[in-house]
Fold this protein.
Amino acid sequence: MPVAPLKPQMKRAALLSLFVIAFCVLDAYSSPRIPVILDTDIGTDIDDAYALALVIASPELDLQGVTTVSGDTQARARLAAKLLWAAGGAFRRVPVYAGEPGKPLPIEQARWAEHFTSPQLKSEKAVDYLRREFNARPGKITLITIGPLTNIGALLKQDPGVAKKIPRIVMMGGSIARGYEPGSGPTPEYNIAADVAASRVVAIAARGRKSPAGVYSPHARH
């Protein structure tokens, strides 16, 4: 079956997703395995699937869990869980938590995981899982966000104090000096623009923090 070529914008998104993960991988060479949680809107463009595959293939990272965001979060959770199940081994024990559903969005890739079931798929809400994990292991888990910041904004609104327990957020989001096209000016980047209120909450929580504790955005265009 022929595979349609990726559109230029999808190619850029895929490369940026991989860069976000590579950012964590390179950092791991100077430290033990990095515990990470991946927050993703997997299922629309291919970039998030690539990113999850890279996490799976990176022994430097210790994937603790996956949370899904935006649109049909349950469908996205099934897709993430099936990819983890296909990876086998310890990845079949990585839990997946769906966030609150949002407005309907195209999720063509989710058809591959339609009706998929697994013990990995948890009924607990994504935000409750994130809150529990960061409070249980303060300063230990890096958060990687490659979708809208809805889950993270909700987490910080529910429990503002948890911000001090997240040592680092590595996110794909933001536009500083240019947009998607060559020669364009700053453009509202999708992951930020999709939930501006949540993005603002995250930015305020990170204000005044310095590396290594803070927010890194390899996706920010400059």
Notes: Helices lie at 8-28, 47-56, 73-87, 126-136, 150-158, 190-193, 196-206. Confidence is low (pLDDT under 50) at residues 1-6, 218-222.
